[in-house]
Amino acid sequence: KCSYLKIFVREEKSKKIFSIYNIKAFCVPDIVLSENIITHRKNGPILLCMRNDVEKYIDNSTILSAKKILNDFNLNFIETDTILENSFDLDLREQKLDELLNKFTNSSLVITDRIHGMIFSYLTQTPCIALNNYNHKVRCEYDWIKESNYTNFLENYSADVFRNIVDKMLKIKAKEPVNLKDKFILLEKELKRIYE
Q1: Judging by beta carbons within 10 Å of its beta carbon (0-12, 13-18, 19+), is residue 42 exposed, middle or buried?
Q2: How are strands ordered across the β-sheet holding 46-49?
Q3: CA angle 36, 37, 38 (to 5 degrees)
Q4: Angle ∠(32,91,116) on CA atoms, nearest 5
Q5: Alpha helices per DSSP H over the chain
Q6: How does pLDDT run along the chain (196 residues), one tens digit per residue?
Q7: Is the whole model's pTM more than 0.70, yes or no?
Q8: Parallel, antiparallel, or unpaired: how do β-strands 128-131 and 151-154 relate?
Q9: Beta partners for 47?
């Protein structure tokens, strides 16, 4: 038995699983949320960042409904994903990440069902509507940033509710992120203990 083992997880559900086995587990936000907030640059087209793989949960009729509402607002949108199709050399990873973050920071609104789509929106201060997915990940990570005024989680899609949230998100002027630095203190302390 390893008495010094400590596991850091993103949400309570995972923490409970480890506690069944008497393993010390602690909740911290996704480590990406420890990055500095980037100032939102401009209000370009809306970014639809939706899953299109075997884990896709939202059906095509819901996506079509969302697109129709965006068209009703006369809003342009582009579709993307947080998964890159092609492999690339590791020395290009920062460049690729910067390119992806630029898509987010140059958008007026992000609509996503991906956990990192929501996180990238949050980090770039881009208003975001995060839609529920097939598991608890987006919902649970949203709990860390729900006090932000530019991130919204939609548990169950409804055209009317979606329309109202789009309208609300597009009217946000001053962005109010959440201070998460203190949420990483225990993780930082443990890492320093190990590496010092």
Answers
A1: exposed
A2: 77-80, 46-49, 110-112, 128-131, 151-154
A3: 115
A4: 25
A5: 12-20, 60-72, 93-105, 115-123, 137-145, 159-170, 185-195
A6: 666 788 999 999 999 999 998 888 999 999 999 998 888 888 899 999 998 877 778 889 999 999 999 999 998 999 987 777 677 888 888 898 888 899 999 999 999 999 999 999 999 999 999 998 878 889 999 999 999 999 999 999 999 999 999 999 999 989 999 999 999 999 999 889 888 7
A7: yes
A8: parallel
A9: 78, 110
**Measured CA angle at 132 (ends 93, 57), to 5 deg:** 80
Which among 158, 113, 152 is positioned nearest to 136, based on CA atoms? 113
Q: What angle do CA 14, 138, 148 make, to 5 degrees?
A: 115
Tokens 């329309």 — which residue?
A: 163
Q: Which amino acid is at 90?
A: L
* Token representation of residue 25: 């587990």
CA atoms of 117 and 113, how far apart (whole Å): 7
Residue with tokens 């069944």, as numbered in its chain: 20
- Answer yes or no: are the C-beta atoms of 10 and 140 closer than 8 Å: yes
Q: Which two tokens stand for residue 4?
A: 């010094």
Rounded-to-integer distance, Cα 139 and Cα 154, Å = 9
State how far Cα 81 lies from the chain centre: 12
Instruction: Please state the separation of Cα 151 from the chain's center in Å.
Output: 9
Backbone angles phi, psi at 72, to 5 degrees: -60, -35
What residues pair up with 111 in beta bridges, in sequence order? Answer: 48, 129
